Amino acid sequence: MINPKTEKMLNKQLNDELYSSYFYLAMSAYFENNAFEGFAKWMRTQSEEERVHAMKIYDYIHRVGGKVKLTAIKTPQTEWANPLAVFKDTYKHECDVTKSINTIVEMAVNLKDHATNNFMQWFISEQVEEEATAQRLLDQLKFIGNDKQGLFMLDREMGQRTVNN
Ligand code: FEO
Questions:
Q1: Mean pLDDT of 25-38
Q2: Ligand 1 surroundings by CB, under 6 angstroms
Q3: Can you give the residue range of the structural domain that contains 72?
C-alpha cells in the first residue's frame, strides 16, 4: 500500500506534468501565431511528451494501490517577446521540475519506499536530458540573436522533431 505522503507528492507531480504539457502547448500556440512552424511543432511534441510523463505517474499511483486525485491545472502564460524568451522560460521550468523530482526521491529514500525511489529514477534521467536540451536551444538562440536567417534555419531544423518517449 502506498504511503499517504508519497501519494500526495505523486499527485502533485502528476498535476505539475499536466501543467507542463499545457505550458508547452501554450508556447506551441504562440509560435503558430507568429509563423514559426518548426518551433510550434517542437513545442507540440514536447507537450505530448509531458502528457506521457503525467500518465506514467497516473499508472504508477494505481499500480501501487493509491488514488489519483486530479485537480485544476493553472492557466499558462500565452505571450512572449520572442523565441529566446520562450526558451529562457523552458529552461527555468525544467530546472523547477528537476527540483520537484529530486524532492520526491529524497522523500522516498527517507520513507524507505524503494519502489517509488526506483520508479522515479526514470524521471531523474529524463530531467538530465530535458535540462540539457533546453540549455542547448537557449544557447543557440542567444548565439543567433536577431539574425532572421539564423532563426529561419533553426525553425526548420526544429520542425524535424518526432516523439521519442
Ligand atoms: Fe516532465 Fe519536461 O519534465
A1: 98
A2: 17, 20, 50, 53, 94, 97, 130
A3: 4-158
